[in-house]
Amino acid sequence: MxxxxxxxxxxxxxxxxxxxxxxxxxxxxxxxGVERIDQVxxxxxxxxxxxxxxxxxxxAQITEQHPDMRVAWTSVDxxxxxxxxxxxxxxxxxxxxxxxxxxxxxxxxxxxxDKLGVVGRRAEGxxxxxxxxxxxxxxxxxxxxxxxxxxTP
Length: 153
Prior knowledge:
alpha+beta; Alpha-D-Glucose-1,6-Bisphosphate, Chain A, domain 4; 7-stranded antiparallel beta sheet; globular
């Protein structure tokens, strides 16, 4: 299992950054390789990605979500991954968005890419594009402020 940790400061209030991050169907506008995300239910998303010419589809479940604080997920099928995005108020108009993602590379190409830091650079680029996306808009495209409590073991 490999881990990527990245963060970026965005010039919007914490609620704006959080609200936009809950709009999963907008991810293709700033995430490289994400073709489509369908919000199946409050806690289930269906992803279609195309990376290196390889198209993959998988479902991911939101395992924890607290407004203006965090969104955590895990894949249900397909590529094994789990992660959390946290939102930290720096001041009234600035937020630090922190991403931590654990993933299991599959096959030779993904393992080589992992060793070369490709996933980390992609995550960093995605966060920069998120920053550009949300700052250029000046506001979120929507938001879901429901609570999802972490499952008890």
